[in-house]
Amino acid sequence: MMRLFHALVVGLFLAGVVHVGSLLAIPSLAPRGPYDRLSALPADGRFVALPDDGANAKLLAFSDPSFVVAACRYDLADGPVTVRAALPSTYGAVAIHERRGAPFYALTDKAATNGTVEVVILRENDVAAAEEDETAQARPSIRIVSPSDAGFVLVRLFAQAPSARPALKALAESATCGRSTTPTSTP
């Protein structure tokens, strides 16, 4: 009887290890992550509003239909990227995600200055050059070190009513996501 109990405990433990291991491996084994799914968006330094219909769920999982969502992909290979977005006072957020989709920084309308947020996304080796350039600027910008060279930024604006969606869509698409004027250092 004791052998049977011991075998059962060992079997359950091994099943648990395999289960947890497979759950942790799924994001890295997935053939198309959110960055790849958003590759259909133009990469010209502007945000593109995601469709309001079910196609939005194909691009980004777990999208809330109460929000207007715009996305912009970035690549830090050529240097830092500056994100500027106007956010309404009702509720708006800017979330910066690494390539696999994990968010690593977010700002809401409460962090906006005169209704606008501005963030510089850079690599670890570009921080020193950005700090040197800060003395020439009137005010320092928010600098965020990205854990990966590529990723995407989402602007989410809350639509209180369906009639507000067109104006919020235009506001979300007016956000920019392009090369920063911050000098970069060479690795």
Task: Describe this protein's structure.
- With 187 residues, the protein is an alpha+beta fold.
- Helices cover 28% and strands 29% of the residues.
- It has helices at 2-29, 34-37, 55-59, 127-133, 165-173, and strands spanning 48-49, 67-75, 81-86, 92-98, 103-108, 116-122, 142-145, 150-158, 176-179.
- The strands form 2 sheets. Strands 1-2-8-4-5 form a 5-stranded antiparallel sheet, with helices on one face. Strands 7-6-3-9 form a 4-stranded mixed sheet.
- The protein is globular and about 70 Å long.
- The model is unreliable at 182-187 (pLDDT under 50).
- Superfamily at the CATH H level of the largest domain? Domain of unknown function DUF1254
Give the tally of structural domains: 2
**Low-confidence stretches at least 5 residues in length (pLDDT < 50)?**
182-187
The SSE string, one letter per element, is: HHEHEEEEEHEEHE
Question: Sheet bearing the most strands, described?
Answer: 5 strands, antiparallel
Helix content: 25-40%
The rounded distance between the terminal residues' Cα atoms is 64 Å
Beta-strand level of the residues, as a percent range?
A: 25-35%
Strand arrangement in the largest pleated sheet: 1-2-8-4-5
What spatial form do the alpha-carbon principal axes imply? globular
Quickly name the level 1 CATH class of the largest domain: Mainly Beta
**Mean pLDDT over the residues:** 80
Determine Rg (CA atoms, Å): 21 Å
Q: What is the correct CATH architecture of the largest domain?
A: Sandwich
Strand-pairing-aware structural class: alpha+beta
Number of helices: 5
